[in-house]
Amino acid sequence: MPPVPTLEPNAVVAVDVVLFTVRQLEQIDAAWQVLLVQRDDAAFAGKWSLPGVLVRADETFDAAARRALQTKAGLDAAGWYLEQLGTFGQPSRDTRGRVVSVAHVALERSDELTLVPGGGILRADWVPVRRVPAGVLAFDHADLLRVAINRIQAKLRYSWVAFQLLPEAFTLPELRAVYAAILDPALLRLNTSNFKKAFAALFASGALAPVGRRAAGGRVGRPGDLYRFRGPLVGTWERELPWHEGGLARVS
């Protein structure tokens, strides 16, 4: 038998993670934020980047992405919403050598998260997505962020992922604020009654159900009713809700 040809290594595989959250802020256009880190590495020239790691020989891309969040920012990403975003492999993307990145995008509430920089990270911080200055990100991470922004904005129009950014029990104004932060701040002007109509199919199916109590006081006005989402986060509006037949699809 002819000898089995061996593969000649010509690239290193990495995973970078675009982790989004929505924070409770007065300025809704700053509420949608992304996790950025600043590395202790001259190759980054003090720039910010997305958390990432080189993939181990016996490691899946998913596991590497979760390890990146754990080692670089001290976040336990087990059970988080996480999906592959795409592959970025321009030969010139890393001046230190040929590195191919299998980028991932993730969503998580940040209320109870504490960032703990580690693994050569000097700083880790949440930065408003719409206020990341041009040229502030290392390598091609600005491209990764742009693709991730488009992906999440698109998914909010046909999927359940917005509920990943909410507590177990939430009010409709809190749900509306997530859509406003990511899609369009003008959605805040949509009253709760009309916003609720856009989710009529969810209420009818029982996927979005009232908890039977109101939110704790603290804000001006009557505390809102609390709701719970009972559907799968991987479900889609396309299958479960006629999103484009009315409601938010008509709001500009």
Rounded to the nearest angstrom, the radius of gyration is 20 Å
Q: What is the chain-wise order of helices and strands?
A: EEEEHEEEHHHHEEH
Q: Give a short account of the largest sheet.
A: 7 strands, mixed
Helix count equals 6
Structural class: alpha+beta
* Spatial shape: elongated
- In whole angstroms, how far apart are the ends? 67 Å
Average the pLDDT over all residues and give the rounded result.
85
The proportion of strand residues reads 15-25%
Poorly predicted runs of 5 or more residues: 236-252
What oligomeric state is this? single chain
Notes on the structure:
The protein has 252 residues and is an alpha+beta fold. Helices cover 22% and strands 24% of the residues. The strands form two sheets. Strands 1, 2, 3, 4, 5, 6 and 7 form a seven-stranded mixed sheet that branches. The chain has a two-stranded antiparallel sheet with strand order 8-9. Strand 2 and strand 3 (48-49) form a beta hairpin. The radius of gyration is 20 Å and the shape is elongated. It starts with 11 loop residues before the first strand and ends in a 12-residue tail after the last helix.
